[in-house]
Amino acid sequence: MPSAPLVLVLNAGSSSLKAAVVDGTGQRLWQGQRGWTIGAADAAGPVPQEEAALAAWLAEGLASWRHDLALVAHRLVHGGERFVEPTRLDPVVIGELEQLIPLAPLHNGPAIRLIHWLNGWLADQTLPLEAWACFDTAFHRTLPEAASTYAIPASWRHQGLRRYGFHGLNHQHVSQVVAVPRLISCHLGAGCSLCAIREGRSVATTMGFTPLEGLVMASRSGSVDPGLILHLLRQGVEPAEIDAALNHRSGLLGLSGLSGDMRELRRAAGEGHAAARLAIGVFRQRLLEGIGAMAASLGGVDAIALSGGIGEHDDQLLAELKAELAWLGAVQIRRIPADEEGQIARLCLSASRPA
Fold first, then answer.
1. Which residues are catalytic?
2. CATH superfamily of this structure's domain 142-340
């Protein structure tokens, strides 16, 4: 039997759901992933067959651990300006979170739908677990005003249109593993972002109001000239089409016309695929520019940490970065496995304990 309380961690996407039973050290006792339609942004409502399949999947995964669970913890991408700490979910908080869905509809919407469904399922299972949430934006609450503010009219800024930053849960985890004064955390996976961390605090990051800003990603464009968007709008391209193209048909996929998976692009580039080579080149160029900007924000660098699927496993990228960043001097470049689920469990367990 576990010697410490366990946490059911849930990470809802628009078309997939990750779940894990995690202890206070981050060890996973059970984990799984499945596709789902309950969270789909265009879903009219839960489909009974899908509800039944999801319930059966969770019941099987939790069978050995249900009596040791202390709480359930949800990952929400966007906490806005209000939610900057692990937060217990009650009807009032959930109502406030629903107001934030427009800030991240592809991420927060499915997470809120899951929270509602799971609350009912837990009641049916007579599992009276407290529900908590952690926010990917929370770690970036320490961004200086100059780093979080867009140079836009005051009336827009007063609407909360600012840089929030994302991947904060993993950036925070990385900063605790690589405890140096000046750290650049590189979260490089399907989504990519950098974070400049000084003494454990986020001081600059590449993502902004949404997870679309910054580096080239698997299918997301990263930063583009706003004038390009205006040009497309003037041509009559609908906002929904621009949204879909920038989020789902750009990035490595859009550049290569082949795949958003760096492993496939490496293989194709090795076989002479010109567009795959271009995709890798643009990805690397933006990454190097971003690292340079983070280094300037920190006034120097003690370590660079690579995390996420690409950061942890792409040997060629590691070699290229070591060569092309030699100008930074004696800087260690380390690979750190991502651990969002473990970080969520630790944060929520700590927050749920009486002061």
1. 136
2. ATPase, nucleotide binding domain (3.30.420.40)
